[in-house]
Amino acid sequence: MPHGYNGRILHVDLTKGSLTIEEPNEAFYRKYMGGSAMGTYYLLKEMPKGADPLGPENVLTLMTGVTTGAAISGQSRINANAKSPISGGIGDSQGGGFFPAELKFAGFDGIVIKGKSAKPVYLWIKDGVAALRNASALAGKGTGEAEAAIKAELGDDKIEVLQHGPAAENGVIYSSLVSMANRNNGRTGMGAVMASKNLRAVAVRGTGKVSIADQKSLVALNRIGPKEIPNNPDMDGLAKYGTASVVLPQHSSGTLPTRNYNEGQFEFAEEISGERMYETVLRGAAEGRQDKEGRDTCYACVVRCKRVVEIKDGAYKVDPKYGGAEYETLGTFGSYCGIKDMAAVNLANEICNKYGVDTIAAGATISFAMECFEKGILTTADTGGIELKFGNAAAMLEVLNQIVTGSSDFGRLLGQGSERAAAAIGKGADECLTTSKGAEAPAHMPQAKRTLGVIYAVNPFGADHQSSEHDWMYEDGMASDLYLGRLKLLGLTEPQEQLSLGKEKVRFAYLTHVFYSMLDTVELCQFVWGPAWTLYGPAETAEMVSAVTGWNVTVDELMQVGARRLNLLRTFNAREGLDSKQDKLPKKFFKALQGEGPTAGFALDEGVYKTAIDQYYEFAGWTKNGIPTADVLKKLEIEWAAEYLPA
Ligand code: SF4
Predict the structure, then answer these.
(1) Quick one: which atom of ligand 1 is closest to the CA of 301?
(2) What is the pairing mode between strands 121-126 and 199-205?
(3) How far is the CA of 79 from the centre of ligand 1 (A)?
(4) Mutate which of 68, 72, 73 to test ligand 1's pocket (most atoms within 8 Å of Cβ)?
(5) How far away, in angstroms, is 57 Cα from ligand 1 center?
(6) What pLDDT sits at residue 645?
(7) How does pLDDT run across 103-136, given as a tens digit for each residue?
C-alpha cells in the first residue's frame, strides 16, 4: 500500500463509454508527484498534435497530488489540464475546496477524460467504483442547483461535485470548473473543454483514508499552522480579510489596476476593500458573527480565507451559496471597471460562480469593452443601447448577464474573451488589451512588479499572478528576515532594488516560477506553502511531502519536479506551434500609467523586457525561441518528451 497516494488513475473514454483503471508504479508518482506535471504527461501521450480544443480529441485531466487528503492545511487542491480553447496551447488551472480530498478518499489520484459522449452524462465515483450517468436533466441549471440535484439523485449530501456551468453550454470560452458552487478551476477555459465532451460533472464520495508514512511528523507540522498565523502579518490579514486584504496595500503602492489598467490607484479602494467587506457584507456581520459564518475553508485548512457574502436587501441581493468576491474579483469587476459598489461586485461574483466563468477573464473583458466604449471604438449601436462607461455598475451587470447567457450578439462576442473581441472589433481595440496568450492580466501590475511582466509573458498558459513570487519579497530593505531566509533555500541571497529588472531579478523570477510550478504539481495551496510569505516555507514543504509519502524528499528534488512540469508544459506548447512569438506583453504595459499615486508615469521598457526574457530562457536552458532542448529534458529525466519537440 503506497503512502499518500492511491496508486490508481481512472481513464474515461466518453466516446466508447468505457472506464478503465491504471495502476502506475511508485517511480511514476515520485517523478511527477501529481497535478499539472502528471496531467501534461497524459496530454502529450494521449492527445494528437493539432487537436481541436473543443473537439473529442482533446484530453482533460483532473489530478490531485501525493499529499492531497492528508490532514494538514493547504493540500486539498486539484489541477485541470487540457488544450486551452483560449490560447491553443496548454490549459492549466488549479482549484481547492473539498472535492480534491474527496476524490482521494474515493480511491483515485486523478482522472484522464477523452472523447465525447453522445448524450449529456456525469461521472459518479464512489469508493473505487465509477459509472457514467444521464445528465440530461441538468442542462441549463446553475451550479448550485445542479449540485443539489446530483446529491438528491444519489441520496447523499456529502458528495462533492466538480462541474461546468451553463455559461459553457452558452459558448463562453473562459468557462471554469466549479465545486461547492463557489470554488473554481478558473483560468484557461477548462469548463468549456468539459462541456465540449458532453460531460456535465464529476461527483465523488469516499470513505477511505490517505495512508500517512510518518503521522507524528505530520501532526507536528500541522500544529505550527495555527500558532504561526498571528505572528505573520500577511497570513493574519489573509485569515481575517481573505485575499481582499490586499486591496488597500495594492492601492497605496499604486498597483491596483484601475479603469482597465490605465491607472494604479482607485479613489474608491476603501469601498471595495477586504476590511469593508468584513464589516458589512460577510454573512453574520450584522450580528458580529462573521468569523463563524462569513469565513469558509478548504478541507483541513486552518487559514479559512474563503468568503461567504450574504446581502438580503437593496438593489443587488447576494446568495451566500455562491461565496464572496476574492481580491482578483474585487479588482476586475471593481477597480478595473471603475465600480465602487461592493454589492454589485459581489453579485457579479455570484453570477460568475452560478454560470461557471473565470471572474478575471469576465471582469477584465468587460473593462476592456468599457475602455473601447469610452474611446468611441464601441458605441451604443454595438452594445444594444448600454452606456458601458467606467463606473456604471448596472451596465457591468447587464453585460455580464448577456455574456453568461449568450443572449445577445454583444454578449456572445465578449464571451470569446477580449483578445478575440478586439480582433473582431478592429479600430485600434487591441490598444485596450491586457492579455498574454489570450489570458487577461490579473490584478498585479507588471509596471511596478517588474518580474511579473516576465512571468506573464513566458508562462506557458499566459498571464498569471500565482505562478511566481512577487517582486517585493526580494526587495532590499522591504522583505522580512523570515522571507529572505526562505528564499535563500532556493539560492536567492541578493535582494534587489524595487524596480530593477537586472539579471539577478530575472533569476528570482525563474527560480520562484520553478518553485510555484512544483506547488501546482504536488497540488499545494500557494497561500499556505511557498518560497517566502506563506505559513510554511520550502524546508517545511519538503518535510511535509516526506512525512506523507515516506520518501526522503529535499528542496532540490522539489525544484526538479517543478522544472519537469514547466518543461512539459512548454514542450506541449512547442508541439502545438507556440514559441517565443507568443511570449508577449500587451502594448498597454509599455505606455505611461495615468492618474495619481506612486506609480503614475510608470511604463515598461521594450528593450529591457526583451533582454529579461532572453535571460529567462538562458536560466531555463531553452533555445532562443523559448523551446526546451533535448538536453534539458534528459537532465530532468523526461527524455521521452523530446519526441514531441519540433524538428
Ligand atoms: S489558504 Fe484559503 S484557499 Fe488555501 S487551502 Fe486554506 S482556505 Fe483554501
Answers:
(1) 6
(2) parallel
(3) 15
(4) 73
(5) 34
(6) 97
(7) 999 999 999 999 999 999 999 999 999 999 999 9
- The reply to whether 233-440 and 450-584+605-644 are identical in fold is no
Counting from 1 in the atom list of ligand 1, the atom nearest the Cα of 305 is: 2
For the chain, domain boundaries: 9-205, 233-440, 450-584+605-644
Q: Which residues form the pocket of ligand 1, taking CB atoms under 6 Å from any ligand atom?
A: 73-74, 96, 297-298, 301, 303-306, 525, 527-528
62: left (phi over 0), alpha (psi -120 to 50) or beta: beta
**Close Cβ partners of 73 (under 8 Å, ≥ 6 residues apart):** 222, 225, 300, 301, 302, 303, 525, 528, 535
Top-level class of domain 9-205: alpha beta
In angstroms, how far apart are the furthest CA atoms of the chain?
67
User: What is the whole-number distance in angstroms between the Cα of residue 300 and the centre of ligand 1?
Assistant: 9
Cα 101 to ligand 1 centre (Å)? 13
C-alpha span between 44 and 499 (Å, rounded): 38
Q: Which CATH number fits domain 233-440: 3.40.140.10, 1.10.443.10, 3.40.50.2300, 1.10.569.10?
A: 1.10.569.10
Ligand 1 centroid to 75 CA: how many Å? 9
Q: Are 33 and 488 in contact (CB under 8 A)?
A: no
- Across residues 567-573, what is the average pLDDT? 98
| pTM (two decimals) | 0.98
Residue nearest ligand 1's atom 2 by CA: 305
Closest residue by Cα to atom 5, ligand 1, is: 74
Give the per-residue pLDDT at 646.
Answer: 95
Q: Give the whole-angstrom CA distance, residue 213 versus residue 270.
A: 47
Q: Which amino acid is at 165?
A: G
Q: Which CATH class is domain 450-584+605-644?
A: mainly alpha
Distance 134 CA to ligand 1 centre (A): 33
Query: pLDDT (tens digit, 9 = 90+) per residue, 614-633?
Result: 999 999 999 999 999 999 99
Atom of ligand 1 nearest to the CA of 76: 5
Q: Which residues pair with 133 in a beta bridge?
A: 122
Atom of ligand 1 nearest to the CA of 302: 6
Q: How confident is the model at residue 442 (pLDDT cuts 50, 70, 90)?
A: very high
Contacts of 510 (CB under 8 A, 6+ apart): 616, 619, 620
Angle CA 529–532–537, to nearest 5? 45
Q: Is the pLDDT of residue 477 over 90?
A: no
Residue 479 pLDDT level (bands cut at 50, 70, 90): confident
| Run of H or E including 220 | helix 215-228
Q: Classify residue 489 by burial, with Cβ atoms within 10 Å: 0-12, 13-18, 19+.
A: middle
List the grid coordinates of 131.
459509472
**What digits encode the pLDDT tens for the residues 48-105?**
999 999 999 999 999 999 999 999 999 999 999 999 999 999 999 999 999 999 999 9
